[in-house]
Every structure is written in C-alpha cells, then in structure tokens.
C-alpha cells in the first residue's frame, strides 16, 4: 500500500490528466456558436469537430490500453501527454474547418493513450477501500469535468476567445509530465506485440458507423462498410493470441451491462451537452458565457452528489446506486423535452438540470466500477480501454443521432424536443441494461 503522500500525488496526476481530457471533450460545446462564426461552419461540420476527437479517442483507446500493458504505463502516459499537448496547440491555432477537424482528431489520439493508462495506473496502485474511493473520484470526474468544462468554455468564448480553452492545455500537459517523472513509478511492461489489424478495423469501422448517421451522401455504403469492418475486428480479437480487446472481458454479465449502459448513457448526455447550449444562445438570447453559467444547477449538484458516491456505494451497493442514478437522469431528460421558449430557462432547463445532475453524479462512478469489476492484472489496461471506448464512441454515436434528429426540423425548439426524447429513450435502454445485467450480479 502506498503512503499518504504518494497516494495524494498519484491521484492528483490521474484526476488532473483525466480532467484535461474531459475539458477538451466538452469545452467546445458552449463555444460552438463562436467557433462557427469565426471559422464559418455549418451545424454538421460543427458536430464533426466533436466527433473527430471522439472517434480517434475511441478508435485508439484499445491500442492505448494495450500499449501501456506492453511498454510500461508511465512511458506510454508521457507519450500521450506530448501528443495531447501538441494537438491542443494546433486546435487553438486552427484557421479553417479541415485544420480544426484534423487537429481535434490528432488530439484525440493523445487522449486515447492517456485515458486507459490513467485508469490502469489507478488499478495498479490501489486496492481494497482505497481503490473503491479512487474509482469513485475517477468516475465522479467524468461528470464533474464535463459539466465544469461547459462553464469554462463559455467564460473563455465570451471574455477572451474559444482558442484559450485549448492553449491552456499546453502548460497543464507540461506540468503533468513533470509530476509523472517525479511521482509515477517506473514499470517495465510485459512481453508481447500490438494488434494493428484490430486497431485499424475498429477505428475505421466506428468512423464509418458515425458517418452513416451524420453523412450527407453514401450513408448505406458507410453502414455496410462499418458492419464489415466491425465483424473483421471481432474475428481478429477472437483469433489473435494477443488481442487489444480480449473477448473474455465480455464473459462477465456485469461488465457487459456496464459497457452497454455506459455507451447508451453517454450517447444521451453528449448529445444533451452539445445541443442545449446552442438552444440557450439562439432561443433565449444567452451569450456563450451565460450559456456556460446556466449549467451551474447541473454542475454544482453533480459535484456535491459525486462526493457522496463512495459512502453511498458502501451503503446501497454499486448496482442499486447505478440504477437509481440512471433513473433520475431519465426523469430529468424527459422533463427537459417539454421545454418551450414560454416556459423559459428556470422551469424548462434549470430545474430539469438539477435532477439530471443528481442522476449523473450517482451514475458515472458505478459505471466505471462495474466496467473493471473482476478483472485480473493482465487485463487491467484492456478493461480500462473498453470502459473509455464505450464512453467516447457511445457519446459520438449519440451526438450524431441527436444532432441528426434535431436537423430534421426547421424549428429549433421542436427539433430539440424530439432530440431530447431520443436521448431519454437511450437512457431507458441503459436503465434496462443496469436492471437485468448489473443488478443480478451484485445481488449474488
């Protein structure tokens, strides 16, 4: 067991690195209107700025987790910091759509290396009650970081420029690199090789799937290509002796429920985070700053609730707490689908956000714990990678669906209504996954 001092520094590195990733995954949402004006982007191109990041993030996550297992988590973590810092700098310097989309994709590769590596370091470092607390903080950061990022993005976009939200990652990355040298333990890794066929087939398969949803032409062809590539990926993972995603991870029903539930949950939430700030700016006349501040009801409640997760998990159990959290998120999302301009911000958005914030605060930590439950040391990186894959790819697919649904209607409020209802439908299926797959395992 680590000493108190070491516990603090390692946990700081883990949580700060994860927060940095989440910052750039969500900070862009409250700045979308400003980015669109600055770079002259339409709505679908705007959604690809987020999707490009999520796709490379999700596509390379399994490789990032496996690389940490093979070459040592500290070394791979530091490589991820360098890539992420350079990518952030390039995003901030972008002058047109191709440059910002390509830079976001490059930045996503850095995130794909960092995310599973940080969670695997956590799994390696802590055990027993200390691990439960550390996972609770890590899972809480997923919701807190995403919510706080919306506020930060609004502040930068209104008072400075949206570019500052990306430039700020450069010194943070440098600081994290220094702390990793000082406080993360060297590890030699394991013998083995990387599964490049699995990596590329999963990356391009998921990219084709998302394009089949948001693309303007060739949707059927993209869908067929996605199916073919994903079948190749699964077969490759079945036949290879050193897979990036060991299929044995899916032999446990609790982990299956966690992966499926997280995929659907983040699909609903990322779409919600993307379209709601735009609604507030275009229909309620909010500035980017005010749209960010308008997320305070969710952010504050989420923060307070997330800090109680470790205690509540010990009292109620991981499965029950997760079920309650998803249910409350579903209630809040359904409530928000009734928004009209006449109901205004407080009744139509703020109060539903409070309910969503409670649900989100109760959900993400248990999702993380269930996703890495009952895994041994050799699969720590892979299991961490799958957790983050479902987080990112689920968010990207859900975002694509909700944006596509909203764009079917000329009236933004009506489009928002139906898009949020679709998000509520995703949450309902996520809830069923928790009830029928995760709860039975926890009650054994």
TrEMBL record:
<dbReference type="InterPro" id="IPR036259">
    <property type="entry name" value="MFS_trans_sf"/>
</dbReference>
<keyword id="KW-1133">Transmembrane helix</keyword>
<feature type="transmembrane region" description="Helical">
    <location>
        <begin position="416"/>
        <end position="439"/>
    </location>
</feature>
<dbReference type="Pfam" id="PF07690">
    <property type="entry name" value="MFS_1"/>
</dbReference>
<feature type="transmembrane region" description="Helical">
    <location>
        <begin position="259"/>
        <end position="276"/>
    </location>
</feature>
<feature type="transmembrane region" description="Helical">
    <location>
        <begin position="135"/>
        <end position="160"/>
    </location>
</feature>
<feature type="domain" description="Major facilitator superfamily (MFS) profile">
    <location>
        <begin position="10"/>
        <end position="442"/>
    </location>
</feature>
<dbReference type="GO" id="GO:0022857">
    <property type="term" value="F:transmembrane transporter activity"/>
</dbReference>
<keyword id="KW-0812">Transmembrane</keyword>
<feature type="transmembrane region" description="Helical">
    <location>
        <begin position="220"/>
        <end position="238"/>
    </location>
</feature>
<dbReference type="GO" id="GO:0005886">
    <property type="term" value="C:plasma membrane"/>
</dbReference>
<feature type="transmembrane region" description="Helical">
    <location>
        <begin position="288"/>
        <end position="309"/>
    </location>
</feature>
<protein>
    <submittedName>
        <fullName>Drug H(+) antiporter</fullName>
    </submittedName>
</protein>
<feature type="transmembrane region" description="Helical">
    <location>
        <begin position="76"/>
        <end position="95"/>
    </location>
</feature>
<feature type="transmembrane region" description="Helical">
    <location>
        <begin position="345"/>
        <end position="373"/>
    </location>
</feature>
<keyword id="KW-0813">Transport</keyword>
<feature type="transmembrane region" description="Helical">
    <location>
        <begin position="101"/>
        <end position="123"/>
    </location>
</feature>
<dbReference type="InterPro" id="IPR011701">
    <property type="entry name" value="MFS"/>
</dbReference>
<keyword id="KW-0472">Membrane</keyword>
<feature type="transmembrane region" description="Helical">
    <location>
        <begin position="45"/>
        <end position="64"/>
    </location>
</feature>
<keyword id="KW-1003">Cell membrane</keyword>
<feature type="transmembrane region" description="Helical">
    <location>
        <begin position="321"/>
        <end position="339"/>
    </location>
</feature>
<feature type="transmembrane region" description="Helical">
    <location>
        <begin position="9"/>
        <end position="33"/>
    </location>
</feature>
<dbReference type="InterPro" id="IPR020846">
    <property type="entry name" value="MFS_dom"/>
</dbReference>
<feature type="transmembrane region" description="Helical">
    <location>
        <begin position="385"/>
        <end position="404"/>
    </location>
</feature>
């Amino acid at each position: 067991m680590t000493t108190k001092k070491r516990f603090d520094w390692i946990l700081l590195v883990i949580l700060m690195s994860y927060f940095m990733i989440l910052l750039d995954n969500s900070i862009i949402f409250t700045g979308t209107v400003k980015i669109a004006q600055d770079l002259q982007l339409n709505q679908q191109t705007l959604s690809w700025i987020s999707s490009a990041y999520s796709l490379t993030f999700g596509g390379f996550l399994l490789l990032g987790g496996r690389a940490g297992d093979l070459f040592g988590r500290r070394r791979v973590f530091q490589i991820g910091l360098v890539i992420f810092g350079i990518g952030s700098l390039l995003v901030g310097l972008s002058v047109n759509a191709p440059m910002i989309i390509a830079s976001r994709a490059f930045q996503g590769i850095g995130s794909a290396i960092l995310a599973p590596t940080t969670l695997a370091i956590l799994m390696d470092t802590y055990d027993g009650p200390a691990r439960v607390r550390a996972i609770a903080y890590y899972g809480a950061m997923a919701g807190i970081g995403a919510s706080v990022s919306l506020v930060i993005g609004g502040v930068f976009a209104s008072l400075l420029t949206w570019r500052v939200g990306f430039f700020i990652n450069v010194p943070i990355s440098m600081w994290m690199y220094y702390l990793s040298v000082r406080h993360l333990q060297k590890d030699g890794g394991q013998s083995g090789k990387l599964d490049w066929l699995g990596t590329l087939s999963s990356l391009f398969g998921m990219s084709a799937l998302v394009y089949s949803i948001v693309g303007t032409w060739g949707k059927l062809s993209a869908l067929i290509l996605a199916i073919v590539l994903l079948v190749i990926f699964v077969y490759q993972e079945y036949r290879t002796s050193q897979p990036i995603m060991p299929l044995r991870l899916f032999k446990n029903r609790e982990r299956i429920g966690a992966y499926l539930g997280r995929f659907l949950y983040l699909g609903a939430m990322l779409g919600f985070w993307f379209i709601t700030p735009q609604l507030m700016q275009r229909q309620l006349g909010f500035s980017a700053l005010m749209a960010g501040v308008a997320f305070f009801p969710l952010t504050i409640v989420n923060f307070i609730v997330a800090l109680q997760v470790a205690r509540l998990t010990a009292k109620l159990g991981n499965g029950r707490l997760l079920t309650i959290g998803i249910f409350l998120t579903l209630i809040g999302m359904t409530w928000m689908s009734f928004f009209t301009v006449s109901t205004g911000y407080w009744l139509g958005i703020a109060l539903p956000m409070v309910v969503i914030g409670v649900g989100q605060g109760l959900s993400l930590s248990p999702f993380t714990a269930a996703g890495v439950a009952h895994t041994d040391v050799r699969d720590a990186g892979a299991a961490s990678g799958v957790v983050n894959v479902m987080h990112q790819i689920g968010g990207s697919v859900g975002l694509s669906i909700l944006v596509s649904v909203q764009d079917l209607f000329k009236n933004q409020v009506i489009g928002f209504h139906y898009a949020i209802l679709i998000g509520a439908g995703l949450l309902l299926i996520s809830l069923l996954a928790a009830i029928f797959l995760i709860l039975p395992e926890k009650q054994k």
